[in-house]
Amino acid sequence: MIFADSLSRLGTESAFVVLARAGQLAAQGRDIINLGIGQPDFKTPEHIVEAGIKALRDGHHGYTPANGIPALREAVAADLQRRHGVEVNPDHVVVVPGGKPTMFFAVLMFGQPGAEIMYPNPGFPIYESVIRYSGATPVPIALEEKNGFAFTAEAVLAQITDRTRLIIINSPANPTGGVTPKEEIDKLVKGLLDHPHVALMSDEIYSNMLYGGRQHVSLLQYPEIRDRLIMLDGWSKTYAMTGWRLGYAVWPDAAVEHVTRLCINDHSCVNAATQYAGIAALEGPQDAVHAMVAEFDKRREVIVRELNALPGIRCADAAGAFYAFPNIEGTGLTSREAQDRFLDEAGVATVAGTSFGAWGEGYLRFSYANSTENILEALSRIRELL
Length: 386
Known about the structure:
Layout: H1 14-27, E1 33-34, H2 46-57, H3 70-84, E2 93-96, H4 100-110, E3 116-121, H5 125-134, E4 137-142, H6 153-158, E5 164-170, H7 182-192, E6 199-203, E7 229-234, E8 247-250, H8 253-266, H9 272-283, H10 287-308, E9 323-324, H11 335-346, E10 348-349, E11 351-352, E12 364-367, H12 372-385
Parallel strand pairs: 1-10, 3-4, 3-5, 5-6, 6-7
Antiparallel strand pairs: 2-8, 7-8, 9-12, 11-12
């Protein structure tokens, strides 16, 4: 078989590689604590599960519109009005199987040889992977510890060229837990008025997970860029629905037809019953969401405190999502060495910072989507190893 050269440019998501290795060790009888995988350790709320079951029993077994059933797109628009105070045309909402299709479609829409696409580094690894696959040049937006792992508008704007086609931003962020302050977003939006050829994709999948009284700032709240903004969100993190594969994006008017065609060519439509579960999630009680985020907040305080007590490690406050991103340079280990030794010798799965880009060297990602008891035990094991 002769494969296309473009396949060699596709990367991967190392958290799944670590998960597989942790699974192998567990199968051998090892006691493994997984602080690597980025998914809530909570069950999908019962009323959402029941809505999915009811949809199946009611006969929703067939194809749906490629962009999602109208009732779900209307529920998304109503939710965005409640949470962000913005008016969204349901016709601009496109429902897809998870968050990654939006990333893939956005990059394919703007990426080609000769084009440049900016992305956060360290950041979700699929950004850089898909940019390279498209043939475009990936241009990293360096996220530094000294800035709370938030981008600065000045640095982003300084890297724009006439070849820049798309800027990807992510706040709250994976893997750092960083949240970009409103003043920086204000400056970025103002500066982009001088660059009308540049589109944006704002990954807001963790928009319900902020701590310390912080409020989410959605790029949808800036009408001056709505005609070139793609806003990504979904159900996976907020409603503990990672395995349901349900996400959406709000697309600018000029891109809706293009992305709908991509959906038709790629996956036809999203699982019908899952979409009815998505409606129940948005329109039903939010108690389970609030309880989950409150529990994450408690764990965040524990893991940050305990990481800072480890020799050779310091950890900035995690502002959002459910990740801590400690600096491990003081241990004398590289990120990959620390990842491998913590797993093989201490039985604790983490993810090397370099899995999220070159700017992640010297860091590890810890997911606190695990019980406080397990977090304390995991850090006790790491303390012993160090």
